């Protein structure tokens, strides 16, 4: 084989490698479109919430479900540069100003991104009961901690189909329990969310199957009350976003 021929073959192989590499690069881009929003790191290991949620559920929920909300949100924002620069809570509070052709996808996926970002933050704890100012607010607004839990679980278990139970908090520190379907959030009404529980089946089905009340009862074992108290203080200072 002449040197020229070898070079030609090498060049052809290199060209082929480029052709093969290109679709892979495109596939990666399609899986993770660049955009203003990104998947937050999980602040603990997948097995940290084992007292209520198995590690596999945590991993799939974060790596695939939450990531899909982020990717779909970024894709929907691709041709809307003014919306790209809006903080998520502002985008969700002003959905009526979002162009109609992307409004539903931004509502569902922006809501999903906000809800899950909050959800990971307020878990990873050891349950128990809150203390200090937050405990006083719960007593003031619900009577006592057990009544608060009962009200919250009734909202979570009573949500027909997919959705969330939330505790909202005002700037004055007033608390209320609400439920919302799908990935809706009180952020869409300009409110602030102190904490919430995901009652989509993907959040609990591997361990609990159809037994949602068992999941919502166990969930309190992994609430991080120190984190919830931080969010409460931030809400009163006007610093709580999502
Ligand atoms: Mn979820």
- How is the biggest beta sheet arranged? 3 strands, antiparallel
| The CATH superfamily title | Iron/manganese superoxide dismutase, C-terminal domain
SS elements, strand count:
3
- Chain-averaged pLDDT: 90
Into which percent range does the helicity of residues fall?
40-55%
Number of domains: 1
**Structural class by secondary-structure content:** mainly alpha
Small molecules bound: manganese (II) ion
Distance between the termini: 67 Å
Across the major sheet, the strand order is 2-1-3
Radius of gyration: 22 Å
Task: Explain how this protein is built.
The chain is mainly alpha-helical and 242 residues long. It has a single domain, classed as 3-Layer(bab) Sandwich (minor pseudopilin epsh fold). The protein is 55% helix and 9% strand. Strands 2-1-3 form a 3-stranded antiparallel beta sheet, sandwiched between helices. Helix 2 (55-77) packs antiparallel against helix 5 and helix 6 (132-142) crosses helix 7 (145-158). It is globular. The protein starts with a helix and ends in a 6-residue tail after the last helix. Mean pLDDT is 90; it is low at 1-31. The protein binds manganese (II) ion.
Q: How are the elements arranged and paired?
A:
Blueprint: H1 3-31, H2 55-77, H3 81-84, H4 88-93, H5 100-121, H6 132-142, H7 145-158, E1 163-169, E2 175-181, E3 192-198, H8 205-208, H9 212-219, H10 225-236
Antiparallel strand pairs: 1-2, 1-3
Helix pairs in contact: 2-5, 6-7
This protein binds manganese (II) ion.
Overview in brief:
This protein has 242 residues and is mainly alpha-helical.
């Amino acid at each position: 084989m002449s040197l020229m021929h070898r070079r030609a073959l090498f060049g052809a192989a290199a060209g082929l490698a480029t052709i093969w590499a290109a679709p892979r690069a495109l596939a990666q881009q399609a899986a993770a479109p660049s955009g203003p929003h990104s998947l937050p790191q999980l602040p603990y290991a997948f097995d940290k919430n084992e007292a209520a949620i198995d590690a596999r559920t945590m991993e799939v929920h974060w790596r695939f479900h939450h990531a899909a909300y982020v990717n779909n949100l970024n894709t929907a924002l691709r041709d809307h540069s003014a919306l790209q620069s809006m903080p998520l809570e502002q985008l969700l509070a002003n959905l009526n100003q979002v162009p109609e052709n992307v409004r539903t996808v931004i509502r569902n996926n922006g809501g999903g991104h906000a809800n899950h970002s909050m959800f990971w933050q307020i878990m990873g704890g050891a349950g128990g009961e809150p203390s200090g100012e937050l405990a006083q607010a719960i007593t003031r607004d619900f009577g006592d901690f057990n009544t608060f839990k009962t009200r919250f679980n009734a909202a979570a278990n009573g949500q027909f189909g997919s959705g969330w139970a939330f505790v909202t908090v005002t700037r004055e520190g007033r608390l209320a329990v609400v439920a919302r379907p799908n990935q809706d959030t009180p952020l869409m009404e300009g409110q602030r969310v102190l904490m919430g529980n995901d009652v989509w089946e993907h959040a609990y089905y591997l361990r609990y199957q159809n037994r949602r009340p068992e999941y919502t009862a166990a969930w309190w074992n992994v609430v991080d009350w120190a984190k919830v108290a931080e969010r409460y203080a931030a809400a009163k200072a006007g610093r709580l976003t999502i």
